[in-house]
Amino acid sequence: MAKLKSERHHWWPECVSQYWADGEGGVHWLLPSGKVRRSVPKNFGVIGNGHAIKLGDEPTVGSVWDTSFEAEFQNADNNFPMIIDWLNSLDRCSPPFERSVGSRIVPVPVEDQQFATMIECLISLAARSPKHREQGVALAEEHRGPLPERERNALIGANIQRTLRNAVRNLGGRGKAMVIFSPEREFIFGDGFFHNLTVQGDHWHHPKMLVPLTPWMSVLFTRPRGYTVEPRLVTFVANKAEADELNYAVQVYAREMLFYRSECPQVDEAFTCGVHKIFADDRNAVDTLVYEIPGVPPRDPNMDEIIDFLERYAKR
What we know:
There is one protein chain. Helix content is 34%, strand content 16%. The protein is α+β, with helices and mostly antiparallel strands. The protein has one domain. The strands form four sheets. The protein has a five-stranded mixed β-sheet. The chain has a four-stranded antiparallel β-sheet with strand order 3-2-13-9, covered by helices on one side. It has a two-stranded antiparallel sheet with strand order 1-4. A hairpin with a 2-residue loop joins strand 10 (208-214) and strand 11 (217-222). Helix 2 (74-88) packs across helix 3, helix 3 (112-127) runs antiparallel to helix 6 and helix 4 crosses helix 5.
């Protein structure tokens, strides 16, 4: 019986992380402690056998049930360079960038296959991220407590192995996207970022995610419950303050790793606590931009009073 070979599986694939290299070819990893580690991009965002499911009791002996789902991400990785180059070539507004948000939004044409491929690439980063891996074992550990490492890793793999394909099938190439450019402030990436992807992916209601692809470009994607189809894709140029707010969202959702090219972000307590957090409601900078996308219905504020009451009650 052949043993499944050990491999380095990237949750931050090299076809993306290479864009984060500075002039000397390195990228920075900022820890919650404030310490910074620096290396070439391919050395970061790696989990040994992260996309393998090993079910045998003995680590040194192969099992007929051992398998790998690394191939699930191959199509996305093959297309990332083309998608990033295409997105980076899109029309966008000119300075000044302190104008109203609406005046900086530019609708751009997109073909069906381009849009669907972009969605798959974005979801692939969420589906293999450490934040999503933690979701894959959260319910089991809530009921059973901490699990042995081998059992934990197998359970994570079993739960997330089809997330990408299920989510892509569920979305069917539909939704709205905003390509956000930041010429004045670098974006950051992390072991968690803003998204509400479910573990299985096929019951993903009102999906939304903000994915930093390069230090100068992020993509915001959503499929609201109701929306007008066109324009499917728009561009937006963020100013420094807006880019800082979007970077804060990465710090909220990250836990142990923030990556940056050359501009070290100021560490926020949302990151230093060492927990993958989420925003409690849609009153945040990312959701604010979602509601700015043409064709997305305006935000309904009717629930605000109830949310505020529940928050005050929880603090008692």
